[in-house]
Design goal:
The protein has about 230 residues and is of the alpha+beta class. The chain folds into two domains: about 1-75, no CATH class; about 75-230, no CATH class. The protein has eight helices and eight strands, in the order ααβββαβββααβαααβ. A five-stranded antiparallel beta sheet has the order 5-4-6-8-7. Strands 2-1-3 form a three-stranded antiparallel beta sheet, with helices on one face. The two termini are about 35 Å apart.
Length: about 230
């Protein structure tokens, strides 16, 4: 072990000998520029931990080359508002009031509003508490707005390599929000019964895969909610 430590010291001294004057200062400035760009783009957050050559929260100028400056962002502070913005941006006109204010951020079956408190390895679920949310997403014969699917695509492009998203249709039990779950009745139940009794009439929906989403459309059954599920990579 002593021999390895001596070799490491020799390698560091040899590398330092070939570095241009002011290299560490320039490297520190470059690290700060990268940090600012990451925060401005939404990829990073204003809350982060900094390590310089493994030392916590010391100035970037104290880096010793060859060495490393590492920023560890506190994940969800910017990410969740960005996901919500993508969803709200895609809500159709005429639905922008009550619907836009009804998105819920859920972690471990609890609605969360303090995003800084969410551990970075959590699974974050965003859904809308309004009972017509699924109809808006899928519509009839695939004619829905697809606002969850389109928001997921935009989110993945923005946070590629750091976070990922997927869209799922979830059965949500009571206890999360007073509006959830919505129990189907009336026209919804009648349509579900027509699909079940004569599936040949609804081949287009079957081809699009919408019949799977409609399996819970019987009267007295809760709807399934489209949800954007976020995870850190």
């Amino acid at each position: 072990m002593a021999a390895l430590a001596q070799f490491g010291d020799m390698l560091q001294r040899a590398t330092a000998d070939v570095l241009p004057p002011g290299a560490e200062r320039k490297f520190a400035a470059y690290a700060r520029r990268c940090l600012a760009q990451s925060i401005a783009s939404g990829f990073g957050t204003e809350q982060y931990d900094k390590y310089v050559n493994g030392r916590f929260n010391v100035a970037e100028e104290q880096v010793k080359l060859p060495g490393r400056i590492t920023y560890i962002f506190h994940g969800w502070t910017n990410v969740i508002p960005a996901a919500l913005a993508e969803l709200r941006r895609r809500v159709p006109r005429g639905k922008t009031g009550r619907y836009q204010s009804s998105f819920l951020v859920i972690v471990n079956r609890r609605v969360v509003t303090n995003y800084a408190s969410i551990p970075v390895n959590s699974e974050v679920i965003i859904l809308n508490a309004q009972p017509y949310t699924r109809k808006m997403e899928v519509g009839a014969n695939g004619s829905g707005e697809g606002h969850f699917a389109r928001a997921s695509y935009a989110f993945d492009n923005k946070f590629s390599g750091a976070f990922e998203s997927e869209v799922a249709f979830l059965k949500v039990t009571s206890g999360i929000d007073a509006r959830i779950p919505y129990i189907l009745k009336g026209a919804h139940a009648k349509r579900a019964n027509r699909i079940k009794a004569n599936p040949n009439k609804f081949q287009e929906e079957i081809k699009l895969g919408l019949h799977h989403r409609r399996q819970s459309l019987g009267g007295g059954q809760p709807i399934t909610y489209p949800a954007l599920i976020l995870k850190a990579l």
